[in-house]
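Morning F.,

Quick status update on the modeling queue. The single chain you submitted on Monday has been processed. Sequence for confirmation:
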Amino acid sequence: WFSDFPNNLILKVVTLDHTQGKKARPGDYAAFIKLGVDRDARLWVQAELTRSLTSTQQAERLVEVCRSWQPNAVGIETNTFQELIKVEAERLAKQAGYIFPCYGMVNRQQKELRIVKLTPHLARSALRVMDNEGGRLLVQQLRNFSMKQQPGMHDDGPDALEQAVRLSNWFMVNKRPKHPDAQPTQRLIPLAELVG
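Structure tokens below.
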């Protein structure tokens, strides 16, 4: 557990696992993950898991998180019609004077198989989670995770965390994602710099 992000982060990403997916269940969380990577390859995670947000509210919250944290990349799942939240977030960011580095992430593997890929990070104790309500819920969801999800169990936090780890890995290996599932728009810069 930790209370503040360290000052030596070399990469920052934000991901959103939104609640409007094809298999959304009642009570699902919109999961916002801030993930920082330090020079020793430790992963520092802040989770915000929220219920009852519309698609527009999720896009608005994503823009707020990005404006305040200034990530190197933002990942949003864009399977099927989920692209609409990415488009809305980009529109809201531009309207607010920012264009952020948004990557559409098409998930081609089963969610359970993707989440299992977090195991090496957990096994080597390389993952630190912020001690807040969202962090405690993320840890609870990780502990309760099963390859055969039971009714009423949620994996929104682990799903968003896996996407954040995947996006950060692409950056660390390639300096920028080259994976076909990650499509960049632009980096986060004030609109005034583009115009003036």
